[in-house]
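Why should sequence recovery work at all? Because a backbone constrains its sequence more than one might expect. Tight turns favour small or flexible residues, buried strands favour hydrophobic ones, and helices have their own preferences. The token representation captures these environments compactly. In the example below, the structure is given first.
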């Protein structure tokens, strides 16, 4: 992610180029929420995250491989990037710019409100599972 360089190829678009239709590039984002270590502001108006947030649904997705959807959503775009080193003070600079949203991603998924990560509770294997080495 180097926003000052302008639009860049995404890893997903490069993998799709190499693997063709066997690869689907999916972008997952959110509109707002509490990440536990930071509370990002709502996405700026020029970001695809803000446009996706207009739907006001708990979660939704768009398949940019569908021609009608591609026509409505394609074009240059900026998407907010929130990684393990994210700080809200740099929110305006933390984005990925692409020349074509539909060339960069096949599917966009948005969760309206993010919440902090919670550890999954893992139960101990039963005696039978432990004896055979199989679980679940």
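From this structural description, the recovered sequence reads:
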């Amino acid at each position: 992610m180097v926003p000052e360089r302008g639009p860049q190829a995404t890893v997903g678009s490069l993998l799709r180029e190499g693997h063709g239709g066997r690869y689907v590039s999916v972008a997952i984002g959110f509109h707002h929420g509490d990440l536990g270590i930071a509370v990002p502001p709502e996405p700026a108006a020029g970001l695809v995250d803000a446009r996706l947030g207009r739907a006001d649904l708990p979660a939704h997705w768009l398949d940019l491989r569908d021609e009608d959807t591609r026509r409505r959503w394609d074009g240059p775009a900026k998407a907010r990037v929130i990684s393990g080193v994210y700080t809200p003070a740099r929110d305006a600079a933390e984005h990925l710019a692409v020349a074509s949203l539909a060339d960069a991603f096949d599917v966009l998924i948005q969760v309206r409100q993010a919440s902090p990560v919670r550890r999954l509770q893992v139960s101990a294997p039963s005696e039978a599972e432990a004896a055979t080495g199989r679980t679940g």
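A few observations help interpret the result. The mean pLDDT is 85.
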